[in-house]
Design brief:
The protein has 112 residues and is mostly helical. It has a single domain, classed as Arc Repressor Mutant, subunit A (Orthogonal Bundle), CATH 1.10.10.10. The chain is built from five helices and two strands, in the order ααααββα. A two-stranded antiparallel sheet has the order 1-2. Strand 1 and strand 2 form a beta hairpin. The protein is elongated, with a radius of gyration of 22 Å.
Length: 112
């Protein structure tokens, strides 16, 4: 299982989130990923190394190119963790709903 600390650390940077958003549309080379940013190709490569180390992308060698794509396992690990948090939040809201329902006064009965 990918390291969630490394994944969330990698996601803390807006450039890396933008790179992942671009890769959600399909595989891309380093040069293609560097196009929309006002930074050098080596700077983008450093971001890619962080994403790769976090298990969020996979890079392969194709001649002189290094196409990148999203790493299914890394993205799914984050999704599983977020699903666990959504479930916990839903349980908390359900408990709150029950408490609030118990607090409603019955019809015909006045609250003091």
């Amino acid at each position: 299982m990918p390291d969630l600390d490394a994944a969330f650390s990698a996601l803390s940077d807006p450039t890396r989130r933008a790179i992942l958003a671009r890769l959600a549309g399909g595989e891309a080379t380093v040069m293609e990923l560097a196009e929309p940013f006002e930074m050098t190709q080596p700077a983008v490569s450093r971001h890619l190394k962080v994403l790769e180390a976090a298990g969020l992308i996979i890079r392969r060698v194709e001649g002189t190119k290094r196409p990148c794509r999203l790493a299914e396992d890394g993205i799914e690990a984050i999704d599983r963790w977020l699903a666990m948090m959504r479930d916990a939040l839903a349980r908390n809201y359900n408990r709150l709903d029950a408490v609030l329902a118990d607090m409603k006064p019955e019809k015909g009965r006045k609250r003091r």
